[in-house]
Write a structure and sequence with these properties.
The structure is a single chain. The chain has 623 residues and is an alpha/beta fold. The protein has three domains: 284 residues, Alpha-Beta Complex (2-enoyl-CoA Hydratase, Chain A, domain 1); 163 residues, Rossmann fold, CATH 3.40.50; 143 residues, N-(1-d-carboxylethyl)-l-norvaline Dehydrogenase, domain 2. The protein has 24 helices and 17 strands. An eight-stranded mixed β-sheet has the order 12-11-10-13-14-15-16-17. Strand 15 and strand 16 form a beta hairpin. Helix 11 packs across helix 20 and helix 19 packs across helix 21. The N terminus is likely disordered.
Length: 623
């Protein structure tokens, strides 16, 4: 066993086998080298981790005392997701990230190793981690492991030849499923042939046993996914026919992923992988991939671990809610394992609220989204109580607007209060209350979190996640209402200038139905516009977003984009108004706003923040 010099290790890092190397640790057991990843961000395969792993693999393969390799990882996940290798939107075109070729080279090195390689998998096995696992001769997973290629939701191809390797191992149907954003639990992956063994215990001992077997018996290259050629071709043909014609530019990556899967059957081994890499590089430089990567980063920042309270699964929640609020919130909280006590100042309203929860659960049973046994188990975790009882201090107190004043007057000064408001409601001025305001889309995917209290905000964020909503912080009031008001005012103004509703709707950035909001007929004599109607809509939104950012209401520019994408249906492949503003560049934005200002200064006169960004040579993403 090789022992790296511990005195040279930076504090808090693992040192590799002479590599660099804080990200790979090696030890050898009975001739099998175990390489354990310990990279940053949940082992996201960035340049440093890929380089360190390549060096460690090379050294293990060159070691005459090593007969086989086991690749595994420290921490809860083998790989939590994709590494952010694309810059934020901007006017300069994207270049191909070198990481794509480096990761493909690593996977090729592992797949062509002269010694058996076995992956021991646990937790999330995503992105580069899954690509590496597929390149190994065999895979062992614990029962909780989940396989995924999130890149397919980011306008990209799976890295490391992942689409081709999926098709070789499991066929076109399984590869297509994984390449449309699907996830595979370990048991399903095993049934498809992507995992060789599933274990209830730790996967490394099983992986060592399998590595020993392969070292004795050999590990021939396997492509069982190609065994049924007609079925493979039928799956590819069906997928091609399902693509729209003509294919919108923002969906090109779907065609390229399909091309890579087809190449697994049509091309020789090395050529198929080379073609896959070319298509992966093509997808990486599209504006859509850049925008989607940017939004993915925005979501990760919004859900940063330090901004969400560690709420135990069986946390006690005291709630004062109307029946309508309770049927929306309580079933999800019960399903998450929480203990919910409903309270009210009077008996009849409390009974109505409990009945609303029961009816909501019954509806889920009828719809097949919950079993009767689950409903009965959840009902054991709910209680009703007249008046307010804080003897057993709850983890959090939840109320809607109807009950806000009643419950706030009775709380201890230290007890945080979370208010559930309706879309369009203003957040009340309370230093103690954190307000959750769901977006008006159905079903909502986002709720805005307005709070001056850090602890209350962290609890509110945890509560939102419990009911399946992305919490987005704002200061002083929600972001969505002023942005939607700007969109409506711009529609009204452009309709008055003679722009037809169909032209406005074709922009794709307005919520459904808003283009008709002004009513009536377009002006008989349309006024010549300095810019296309779609650009004028975009500029109005950028201008209001800049004001919200300047006033400190939005914490980050990317929060505004996330708000509109999740809360108002802005096309995610466009990134949002701030991303589009950066793609144009603040100087162009200011110039075009100045052109449009005469139409309506309230909508199009450049906000002072835009001038400040131009003078500083910065973009919106700097804020």
């Amino acid at each position: 066993m090789n022992s790296p010099d511990r005195s040279l290790r930076p504090p808090g890092h693992l040192a590799g086998d002479g590599a660099a190397e804080d990200y790979v640790q090696r030890h050898t057991q009975d001739g099998v080298a175990i390489l354990s990843l310990a990279g940053p961000g949940g082992n996201r395969f960035g340049p440093d981790l890929v380089a360190a792993l390549m060096r460690s693999v090379d050294r293990a393969l060159a070691d005459p005392g090593v007969r086989a390799l086991v690749l595994t990882a420290r921490g809860p996940d083998v790989c939590a997701g994709p590494f952010a290798d694309l810059p934020p939107p901007g006017p300069v075109p994207t270049t191909v990230p070198p990481l794509l070729a480096d990761l493909s080279a690593l996977c090729h090195r592992v797949s062509e190793a002269g010694k058996p390689t076995v992956a021991a998998l646990h937790g999330r096995v995503a992105s580069g981690g899954l690509a590496l696992a597929l390149a190994c001769a065999a895979r062992v997973a614990d029962r909780r492991a989940v396989l995924a290629f999130p890149e397919t939701r980011l306008g990209r191809l799976p890295p490391g030849g992942g689409a081709v390797r999926l098709a070789w191992l499991a066929g076109a149907e399984a590869a297509l499923r994984m390449c449309t954003g699907g996830t595979l639990p370990a048991a399903e992956a095993s049934a498809l042939g992507l995992v060789d063994r599933v274990t209830d215990g730790a996967p490394v001992p099983e992986a060592l046993d399998l590595a020993e077997t392969l070292a004795r018996e050999g590990a021939p290259r396997r492509t069982p996914g190609l065994d049924d050629g007609p079925r493979f071709r039928a799956a590819v043909t069906g997928a091609r026919q399902a693509l729209p014609r003509p294919l919108p530019a923002h969906r090109r990556a779907e065609q390229w992923r399909l091309d890579a899967i087809e190449a697994a059957q049509l091309l020789p081994h090395d050529q198929a992988l080379a073609f896959d890499l070319i298509r992966a590089e093509d997808a990486a430089v599209t504006p859509e991939a850049r925008a989607l990567s940017y939004l993915n980063g925005a979501a990760r920042r919004a859900l940063a671990a330090g901004d969400v309270a560690d709420l135990p699964p069986d946390a006690t929640i005291l709630a004062a809610l109307t029946p309508a609020s309770a049927e929306r919130l309580v079933p999800g909280l019960l399903r998450s394992g929480a203990l919910v006590t409903l309270t009210a100042p009077e008996r009849d309203p409390l009974a109505d609220t409990l009945e609303a929860v029961a009816e909501a659960q019954l509806a889920q049973v009828r719809a097949g989204t919950m079993t009767q046994a689950q409903s009965e188990a959840d009902w054991q975790r709910i209680a009703g109580r007249l008046h307010l009882d804080l003897t057993d201090r709850p983890a959090l107190v939840l109320a809607d607007r109807v009950h806000a004043a009643w419950i706030a007057d009775q709380l201890d000064p230290e007890q945080a209060l979370i208010l559930w408001l309706s879309p369009g409601d203003d957040a009340p001025e309370s230093a103690r209350a954190a307000c959750l305001i769901p977006a008006p889309t159905q079903p909502p995917r986002l709720c805005e979190l307005v709070s001056a209290d850090t602890d209350a905000a962290r609890l509110a964020a945890a509560l939102a996640l419990r009911i399946g909503l992305t919490p987005l912080r704002a200061r002083g009031g929600p972001l969505l209402p002023p942005l939607m008001e700007t969109a409506l005012q711009a529609v009204v103004r452009l309709r008055a200038l003679g722009v037809a509703p169909a032209t406005l709707a074709a922009s794709g950035i307005l919520p459904r139905g808003l283009a008709d909001a002004a009513g009536g007929e377009p002006a008989a004599d349309p006024v010549p516009l300095p810019l296309p109607a779609e650009r004028l809509l975009l500029l109005a939104m950028i201008n209001t977003a800049a004001r919200l950012l300047r006033e400190g209401r939005a914490l980050r520019s990317s929060d505004i984009d996330l708000c509109l994408v999740l809360g108002a249906g802005w096309p995610n492949w466009r990134g949002g108004p701030m991303a589009e503003g950066d793609t144009l560049g603040p100087m162009i934005v200011r110039h075009e706003l100045t052109q449009a200002s005469a139409l309506d200064p309230g909508l199009w006169h450049p906000d002072p923040l835009i001038d400040a960004l131009v003078h500083a040579g910065q973009g919106f993403s700097s804020r």
